[in-house]
Design goal:
Rossmann fold; 7 helices; about 260 residues; binds S-adenosylmethionine; about 35% helix; alpha/beta; 2 domains
Length: about 260
Amino acid sequence: MSAEKASWKRIQDVIWVKSFLGKGHYTPSGGTRRLNNLWEHVYLFVKDKNEYKIEPKSIGIPYTDKSNIGRYSDTDLRDPGNVWLIPYIKTTGATVKKGHEAPFPIGLPYKCIKLVPNVKTVLDPFGGTCSTLAACLILGVKGYAYEKYPRVEVIKSRILEGKEFQESEENLIPHLELSIKLLNNLLSDSSIQSPAIKSKAELNYYQILNNVLNNLNLDNSFKRSIQKRIEHFKKSLLQKKEQENKYRQTKLDFKS
Ligand SMILES: C[S@@+](CC[C@H](N)C(=O)[O-])C[C@H]1O[C@@H](n2cnc3c(N)ncnc32)[C@H](O)[C@@H]1O
């Protein structure tokens, strides 16, 4: 690889999945001899292998099993792994000399940069519309890009687009958002309340449900009742622990 010949050190290979289960755009490249390609390699290089450190939780994902919080991590964040689903939503249809240009989502360089918290300078050798510079600006990191056929207006507008950028979670179930929206409407009009939580296993399930509702930006009386139940159960667990500690302490005092 020519970057390596030029003394850059490859530290990470990420698979960017741009389309999955019908979510996200891709350029049809298949036919009767091969399937369409829905993913791309992303290579991260550094100048000095001894000077970088990644922070996986900076781009972390929530635990499925909430009981892992406190066991493996203090927060509900875990290493997201090296396969990233970022649906490719937009194509500009514009051309750069020959062929179509292929801007990647700003979320892709954003994640790469965020992964390395002490990053000082970023270089994208194939700038295109300069999505990487847009991501640099969002994260307040100095960025450079090379581009053989720079189109200043396209680059300017891409960088401005970065101002609207928002991190988003993906869900893969077809029509899930629509179903949840309908459910949300129904629940807003009803007096259904979440039942009391009776065990740690139930707490786990309700935390997952609460996460899903949060990610979908839903806010209704049902969701609030779930949150209340979660807080109430956590409080009762804490009280139980405190009581046990007190009991243990009393027993010790008694012995001494
Ligand atoms: C796939 S596009 C990159 C798109 C970019 N990631 C974005 O989000 O807009 C690749 C770009 O690399 C540029 N390019 C190809 N060979 C190059 C070279 N040797 N030096 C500089 N730029 C080059 C092309 O003109 C093209 O705009």
